[in-house]
Design brief:
It contains three helices and six strands, in the order H-E-E-E-H-E-E-E-H. It has one domain (6-103): TBP-interacting protein, N-terminal domain (Trna Endonuclease, Chain: A, domain 1, 3-Layer(aba) Sandwich), CATH 3.40.1350. It has helices at 6-18, 62-70, 98-103, and strands at 25-30, 37-44, 47-53, 76-80, 85-86, 90-94.
Length: 105
């Protein structure tokens, strides 16, 4: 079951971590042509945090990159099976850190 629904179960896990904080407004974003999506847009304390969730170590986040580049001032977050890694336009955190990432806003 985990093999077939790995992405959906991983996104559900992250969502459960995000709703632990009552201060989060959580949204989903998709382009009109359905060619890009952001798993979670979190609004808290006047800040917006675009979050991409990956169920593996595949670190491609094309939609997240396009979204961050189109919205000046945003910095993306990717939650995945990979360790912490800082990049110019995004930061990768391990999945277990989802709650701490949002609480830091």
């Amino acid at each position: 079951m985990f093999t077939d629904f790995r992405g959906a179960l991983t996104e559900q896990y992250v969502f459960q971590q995000l709703v632990l904080s009552q201060d989060n407004d959580i949204y989903y974003w998709s382009q009109d042509n359905s060619r890009g999506e952001i798993d979670f847009l979190i609004q808290r304390n006047g800040k917006i945090l675009p979050v991409e969730v990956k169920a593996s170590e595949n670190l491609h986040a094309k939609s997240l990159r396009l979204f961050v580049e189109a919205n000046t001032g945003l910095h993306g977050v990717r939650l995945s099976m990979s360790p912490y890694k800082e990049q110019q336009w995004l930061t990768n955190y391990p999945l277990y850190a989802a709650q701490a990432v949002v609480d830091s806003l």
